[in-house]
Specification:
heterotrimer; A mainly alpha; B mainly alpha; C alpha/beta; A: mainly alpha; two-stranded antiparallel ribbon; 74% helix; globular; C: alpha/beta; Rossmann fold; four-stranded antiparallel β-sheet; 9 helices; 10 strands; 38% helix; binds adenosine-5'-diphosphate; binds magnesium ion
Chain lengths: 299, 314, 256
């Protein structure tokens, strides 16, 4: 039973990270109907930005301030990256066939990934252990580290904030309107460009938090980690129903817990494959994901 | 085919025939790889370009062909020639079994599911399923092909073997293009509902496109095994599938010259810039974006309207 | 026996009853009209007949055979083809290739002809392209054969769509607002064409908003409102039916 709860805690931690990254995929998909393949690499980039920031500021700031500063700086810089990405790789292709934008996204992904390698080298980099104090809490035999608490709490706050933003603010409503029908939204006077830019900023900022968590939680970061974390998060978004914000949160959590239990009970050499078996089974049973709506084509 | 096209294809094929006489053996080997990947890309185009299904797991069928030959030869001692039918049939069967339950999925969902299949496939190869795939290192030392006493062991002989298969592929695709099944793929791609309403069984033709493309990819896999006398999981992982996918879109979906150009651009050009090592992929990414902005339908887009002359003449 | 019969067909979207227990019967060789205000459920009826939607209740019987729930291609192959209210052509392809799509089922090529070309292939291919030529000539499209369908003017696109449906050699041709967006000259041409098609032995079922055209061309009409049939009869009876005038014609005057 203790193993069960331990894995549940671990799963929720990884799941929160997946969910944060998955939100970036799902939000962009919602408004642009585009799989932003470069998002995972942006997340990897944010981990490197975070690492540089921590190294620069360590010692100069108190631990709490250091973490806050690192998050803010990384989120800002990553959002900037997301903005450039939208501007350079996606905006010129808005009217092009949908697959052209997919290729552009793959190209952008290659640029970021190899850019990271050229700057920071092909070898893994290690986050300093002292970035977050290594404290553990023992609750009836289940261990929770301070880092895990941080991941869970911050993710929860961000997701609630996002939920409120999307459902309670004017810009959030505009975002939902664009997701349903961009042309109609434009005719209603919504500034679609502004909505798209906002989507990229928020998606990238959430991804940056995810990237920082990956760096601080797993410690080792490498230039092509965007693919694997990105793909997992993307799978989470698909499982939840891509384009659906609560779906991405749910999908992330489910996938995280699933992965944790696989790691706890099944040989790790099959764990990656099992993630995709889960995906395939869900796609066969529910072709638009758990919370995705089936839209009947009007003829 | 009009005269202009015959001349173009004639020049292209003739250059491929004489090319090895001007190249050293390293470059003949690069060109052999180019031909192998051209076959795979052309087969990927049947599903992606023509039938319009976002298949991002095409390396599975390529790999199944390659592994079939390697395993049957190394583990069971079959002569290479005897492995070829299996290396075609197995990918066909796999493609139908894999595609049947997901063929109705909307574009992006199909894409993700096929990525999923590809990842499970490579993971299985790495884990040495049934103890025959050789694990992460794959299988080494596959014998050369022997036909009627002739042994395809030199680089040059493998080059011409690959060339022969490419020629076969081009003929098949040309036949497809000018037949009822080939047109059906375009129709269902452009408007699946309208196709159904004029009597096209879209599900059948979707599976058909998967089966045909898997067969060609499997055949390319055989040549791959012969070229390297080895197979390993890395050659068939989903990153490779992403490459084939990209080649078709960069070159021009449904366009034979486009796909050939795309393959050249993605496989041969990086070889030319080998000395720039790592930075070349960065440049590559930039080029992919620029090409898509400049030519959203690919470098050499398809032209429809290939209709017989007697239709327009009085 | 009627060619097509609908018995109590009901189609529901969410809570909305788009077609409510509709029964109609179409005799062979007729030109049958369905009219009704926007949103009355006319297109939905067509979608049920052609297998695009599966009705929740009721039966659709074609030539004595129950075809309810059949897939669209099967229904098309049995002899029912259609045009769409919003034109659905293969835009990137040529006019001739669009019409050739209608020959799909009639062409006897098998799957292997996509791989190997046999002498039979050449014979079959030629026969079907010549059929395409016939249909292009019937609709006056011959000189546009090589042109891209999507770049043709609206009126021409409507013709291509009809030619494509007719190329399947259907027994029942279903036209969803064939005159929408046409000018007067094109509309007169359309009336001629529809009559010509009927004279070829094809039964026609159409939805149309243009009252002159409907009254002029159809032999029998059903009027739909909120998914229900509120009247049926010969055009002159419908024109004078007070229920129809109130529900439909009256409403149209309000709009103006
Ligand atoms: N796929 C669908 N999903 C939901 N509602 C639909 C769908 N198709 C049609 N409807 C609704 O059914 C009603 C009838 O539509 P339709 O048959 O298109 O009317 P008509 O052709 O008579 O103008 C309308 O209220 C329409 O909004
Ligand atoms: Mg309608």
């Amino acid at each position: 039973m203790e193993i069960f709860f331990q894995q549940l805690v671990n799963g929720l931690t990884i799941g929160s990270i997946y969910a944060l990254v998955a939100l970036g995929y799902t939000m962009v998909y919602g408004v642009l109907k585009l799989i932003n393949f470069a998002h995972g690499d942006l997340v990897a980039l944010s981990a490197y930005i975070g690492l540089v920031t921590v190294m620069q500021l360590m010692g100069a700031l108190s631990p709490v301030l250091l973490i806050i500063a690192t998050f803010i700086i990384t989120m800002i810089l990553t959002s900037l990256g997301g903005l450039i990405l939208e501007r350079a790789a996606y905006r010129p292709l808005r009217k092009a066939p949908r697959l052209s934008a997919v290729v552009s996204a793959l190209g952008a992904s290659m640029i970021i990934e190899n850019g990271i390698m050229l700057i920071w080298g092909p070898m893994p980099r290690i986050f300093p252990a002292s970035a977050v104090p290594n404290a553990n809490y023992n609750i009836h035999g289940v261990y929770i580290s301070l880092m895990q608490v941080l991941v869970l709490v911050i993710s929860f706050i961000l997701m609630v904030a996002l939920y409120l933003f999307v459902n309670r603010t004017k810009l959030g409503t505009a975002m939902r309107a664009c997701a349903i029908d961009q042309d109609a939204a434009r005719l209603m006077g919504i500034d679609v460009n502004k909505v798209i830019v906002t989507t990229f900023i928020i998606g990238s900022a959430l991804g940056a938090v995810g990237g920082l968590f990956i760096g601080m939680y797993y410690r080792g970061i490498y230039f092509n980690m965007g693919w694997i974390y990105g793909l997992n998060a993307f799978v989470a978004a698909i499982i939840g129903g891509i384009g659906n914000i609560p779906g991405a949160m749910l999908g992330g959590m489910l996938l995280g817990i699933f992965n944790a239990f696989i790691a706890g009970y099944v040989s790790s050499s099959w764990s990656l494959a099992l993630t995709y078996v889960l995906l395939i089974v869900i796609m066969i049973l529910r072709p638009t994901g758990i919370l995705g709506e089936r839209v009947a084509e009007k003829v | 085919m009009n005269t202009k096209n015959i001349v173009y294809y004639g020049i292209f094929l003739f250059s491929l025939i004489i090319l090895p006489f001007f190249l050293n053996s390293d470059w003949v080997s690069v060109m052999t790889t180019f031909i192998i990947y051209s076959i795979v890309s052309l087969s990927q185009d049947i599903v992606l370009g023509r039938a319009g299904m976002f298949d991002m797991g095409h390396a599975i069928f390529f790999g199944l062909g390659a592994y079939s030959t390697a395993i049957l030869n190394m583990v069971y001692g079959w002569p290479i020639l005897a492995t070829i039918p299996i290396a075609i049939i197995l990918p066909i069967v796999a493609s139908i079994i894999l595609a049947a339950p997901i063929i109705h999925l909307r574009g992006d969902y199909l894409l993700v599911t096929t990525i999923g299949f590809n990842i499970v496939f490579t993971q299985a190869l790495k884990n040495n399923v049934f103890g025959i795939t050789g694990g992460p290192n794959g299988i080494f030392g596959v014998e050369p092909l022997k036909i009627l006493g002739f042994v395809f062991s030199s680089q040059l002989s493998i080059y011409y073997l690959a060339f022969f298969i490419l020629l076969l592929t081009l003929i098949v695709i040309h036949n497809l293009e000018t037949s009822k099944p080939g047109r059906a793929l375009h129709y269902l791609n452009l408007d699946s509902l309208a196709s159904e309403c004029i009597g096209i069984n879209t599900r059948f033709y979707r599976l058909y496109s998967f089966a045909l493309s898997a067969a060609l990819a499997g055949l390319a896999g055989v040549v791959f095994t012969l070229q390297f006398s080895a197979v390993s999981p890395g050659a068939f992982n989903f990153i490779q599938s992403v490459l084939f996918f990209t080649i078709v879109l960069v070159g021009g979906p449904s366009s034979i010259p486009g796909v050939l150009l795309g393959t050249f651009f993605m496989f041969v050009v990086p070889e030319i810039f080998r000395q720039f090592a790592e930075a070349r992929y960065l440049v590559f990414g930039v080029a992919m974006i620029l090409i898509m902005i400049w030519r959203p339908k690919g470098i050499w887009p398809v032209k429809f309207g290939r209709i017989p002359n007697y239709l327009t003449k009085e | 026996m009627a060619l097509l019969e609908l018995n109590n067909v009901t189609k529901i979207f969410g809570g909305l009853v788009a077609v409510d227990s509709l029964s109609i019967s179409i005799e062979k060789g007729m030109i049958y009209g369905i009219i009704g205000p926007n949103g009355a459920g006319k297109t939905t009826v067509f979608n049920c007949i052609t297998g695009v939607y599966k009705p929740e209740k009721g039966k659709i019987i074609f030539k004595g055979k129950d075809i309810t729930g059949f897939s669209s291609h099967k229904i098309a192959n049995m002899g029912i083809t259609r045009t769409f209210q919003t034109i659905r052509l293969f835009n990137e392809m040529s006019v001739a290739e669009n019409i050739m799509s209608g020959r799909h089922f009639k062409s006897r090529q098998k799957w292997w002809h996509g791989i190997i070309h046999t002498p039979f292939y050449y014979k079959d291919e030629r026969a079907n392209w010549l059929k395409v030529k016939e249909y292009m000539e019937l609709f006056g499209l011959a000189r546009l054969a090589k042109m891209t369908a999507g770049s043709q003017p609206y009126g021409v696109q409507r013709k291509i769509e009809m030619a494509r449906a007719l190329a399947t050699e259907p027994e029942l041709l279903i036209l969803d607002e064939p005159a929408a967006g046409l000018n007067d000259k094109e509309r007169l041409e359309l009336v001629d064409t529809i009559r010509k098609i009927r004279d070829m032995g094809v039964t026609i079922l159409l939805i149309e908003h243009n009252m002159d055209l409907v009254m002029n061309i159809t032999e029998y009409i059903s009027v739909l409102n909120f998914g229900k049939k509120i009247a049926e009869g010969k055009p002159e009876d419908i024109q004078n039916n007070p229920v129809v005038i109130e529900a439909y014609l009256g409403k149209e005057e309000e709009d103006e």
